[in-house]
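Q: How would the structure tokens look for this protein?
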Amino acid sequence: MVQADYLFLMTDVDCLYDKNPRTNPDALPIEVVEDVSALEADVSSAGSSLGTGGMATKLVAARLATSAGVTTVIARSSNPGNIFNVVRYCQSLKQIHQSADTSQPLTPAPTDDDSLSKSTSSLELLVKPPLHTRFLPDPEPIRDRSFWLLYGLAAHGTIFIDEGAHRALTSKAGLLPVGIVDVEGYFAQQEAVRLVVVSAPQHQRTASTGSLSNGVPLSSRPAPREVGRALVNYSATEIARIKGLQSTQIEEVLGYADSEYVALRENVSLIKKVERGNRPATPGVDTRTERIEDRVAMKEPMI
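A: Here is the predicted structure in token form.
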């Protein structure tokens, strides 16, 4: 929520590896991570004397920070000067990206020294940084209240919703009781809950109450997925009584109706699914930048 540019997580290894480097000499470093949830890496490191928590804890921190738009870096704590070198490298990449966006598409690599000098002039300050893992920030970060709803509050229970309710939420509508399939846990009004989408065939609900007719707990059904968090207008007991009903029936069932919505849309924060991959080495920010870096390597190897 402070909208920092970088978060550095210092540890006793240089970066993330696909295997434990202490026991696997062929372990490969993972230098750029675009989607933490899709990461496949060894997290058996126990942490360093200058930090707290193991690598798994650092991945949780990286997921939170990148979702808020913060570039997150894992680096070795024994050399604090690495922080400056990594930041300088990231800033240089950003400048190259900006200049590439405003210039003409690159032509094939030049063959004469003069043309090569022109192509590499913008890369004079680009020096290969120390080994590290850099988590790229979400291009559409969650800010302030939405971030607080997702990560700042402990969930006291779970509301299971159908696909229709999920689509309504993604369209900026509030959560109505008709879209609720089941509720789990004990919570009061204005407490945070998880929102989980389940596939519950319509024919398995009774027309009057919306409850499942076969008695199978919703939490045990295949492939439920958490899609967000919400602050609710009704308690768990109240929601259990009005789930599957129209909003006009709330007062009839409860004897009162504080709101037609179980959760107002402003009190709902959805988890964004980012379809991106992870790269085993640090490339340029796009294909054009990669080709520029290749030209620099042809002229003079980077150190």
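Residues 82-102 form the longest helix (21 residues).

The longest strand covers residues 225-231.

Upvote if useful.
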